[in-house]
Each structure stands twice: as C-alpha cells, then as structure tokens.
Amino acid sequence: MPEPSTEQGQKPGPLRRALLLIPGILLCGVVTVISLGVQAVEERVFDHPYIEALVVAILLGMAVRTAWQPSERWRSGIAFSAKQLLEVAVMLLGASISFAAIVASGYLLIGAIAVTVVIMLAISYGLSRLLGLKAKLSVLIACGNSICGNSAIAAVAPVIGADGDDIASSISFTAILGVLMVLGLPLLIPLLQLSATQYGILAGLTVYAVPQVLAATVPAGIVSTQLGTLVKLVRVLMLGPIVVGLSLLVARRRKQEAGAAKAVSISPFKLVPWFIIGFLVLAALRSFQLVPDIVIAPVTKTAAILTVVSMAALGLGVDVRVLSTVGGRVTAAVTLSLLLLLGLSIGLVHFFK
C-alpha cells in the first residue's frame, strides 16, 4: 500500500504518519479488549481458557471484515498492528525464555522432544505440499503442529513473509483441533494404560498451547501436570532455533532470487530480522539472570497482549472467500499432521515409565 503524500507531493513526516496509524490501531485494540474479556469469562467458568484470546481476536476480526470493508483511513493502522506490533511481541518473548530450562529437563527427554519436533516439521510440511498448499502456508502448518500451535504460527509468519489469509487459515483450523485434543486426550489414559509420567509426556508433546496442556493434564494429577508443562516448555524453546534457521533460509533464497552472481559477506544483522536478534539477546540476558524476575511477568503479559492485537489486525485483513478456497485442504493437512504427531508421541512415551 503506497504511503499517503502531502499536497506538495512529499511524504508526510513521522508525526503525521504516526497519527494516520491511530484509527486502525484503536480498532484492533477494541477487538483485543473484547477477546481478552471472552478469555477472562472462560477462565472464570472453566478455570482454563479452551479458546484463547488470540483465536477469538482473529475470528472476531474476520467477522467484522465480513460485515464491513475498512476504508483507507483504517488500513494503515491495521497493517502496522499486523506486522510491526507482532514483531515487537516476538522479541519480548525472549525475556521469558531461560536456556537453563533445557538442561534441567534431562538430555534423553530433550533429545526425544527435539527429534519429534524435527520429524514432524518435515512430515507436516511435506504432507501440506502434497495436498497442494502453498509453501508459506505449509511452513505455518508445520510449525504450528510441531511446536506450539498459534504462538509458533504468529512467530514464524513475519519471518517468512506470510500474508494474513495464510495466517488466519492455519490458526483457525489449528485452534479447533487444539480444543478437541484437550477434550479427547484424557480418554487415552485408560485406553492405552498410560502412567502419570507417560501421559504427561504425551500431553506435552501433542497439545498446542501451555494453558491447554494444563487443562488436559490437571484431571490426571499433579505428576502429569508438572511433566506435561515441562515437556511443553522445552518444546516451545525449539521455536527459537527454528525461527532463526528459517530467517537465514529466507534471506539466502531472497539473495538467490535477486540474482546475486558472486558470493559476498553478509552481516548477520541483515540475514536475521531485528526482532529475532532482540529475542535471542533477551533470552541470553534472562539465562544469565540479568533480567530481574520482577520484570518477566509484565514483559510476558505485554507480549501476549500485542500478539492478540496483531491477531485482531490479521482477522480484519482477511477475506473469508479466500479461506473457503483452501479450507478443505488446510483441514486435511492439519488433521493428518496432528494424528501423525499423536501416533509418533504414543510410540515414544513407551520408553518412559
């Protein structure tokens, strides 16, 4: 979208550009407040949110977009919220990550989690491509299924340059299956004669979001809850290297497409997006205990709210008619990927008594 210009044909100054963003950002903020309210009601009624605020935000944004086409006045702020605010949210998440958590969980379990994530990334991506989905949408589905659902999709999307339709498609169908997993996974305890340890590992490997892991494991007891949360957090930590690797791959591919004939030395700051560098810096500071504990909760909360704002913006930019053209294939890709992840995880937990 071209930038608005003044009557003299010049681009507006920084202050004018900032003012132009306000209507769209405020609109996204309204959707965010409503979505957070829905999640708060869920937490009060069910103790855990089965449908997270970021899912509510994107669905509500899509509903608003279906009923009303935003004019030029709103679009710049919506676009800013969908991209720049999401990048800031991803960067802030680094402050909540401690590399020490990886070592504390045990090398055997760490290796099992890493192998599971890598295998499922390859399988989910290949399956999505076989079903005729675009490469970027396939990457989003693979990361969401293999790592941490909506959070992984939101983190990877700006790195690979995914558009709003792809993000909305992958998040919407992943969210539905995530809720079904929470409701159905406990049924496997008596069916497969799983111990508390085995079920905790299974839940941590297969359920998408940390709150959903809690919802799925609390009925099974404290051991399952603690182990499931630990496995899930280690799985989430895989997001860092995956995102960095994708950013390097995208940078290399863009360089090749640009027709660079000779090899040149490229700064890591050009290869890796600024917000990924910020993520790694904050994670390192957190690991060396240079980030005070009192700061972690507000920073994490800010990142979560900014992510919801971004999802609201993505929903407001989605054309539902585009989703209908890929709905069946996306549903098949996500469903089959989740079933394969479940099968692989069930086989894995039998090694842990």
Key attributes of the depicted protein:
78% helix, 353 residues, 17 helices, membrane, cell membrane, mainly alpha, 0% strand, transmembrane
Protein described:
Keywords: Cell membrane, Membrane, Transmembrane, Transmembrane helix. It comes from Bradyrhizobium macuxiense. This protein is mainly α and 353 residues long. It has one domain (22-258, 265-349). The chain is 78% helix and 0% strand. The protein has 17 helices and no strands. α1 (14-46) packs across α2 (53-67) and α8 (164-184) runs parallel beside α11 (210-217). The longest helix has 33 residues, at 14-46. The protein is globular. The N and C termini lie far apart (56 Å). Residues 261-267 have low confidence and may be disordered.
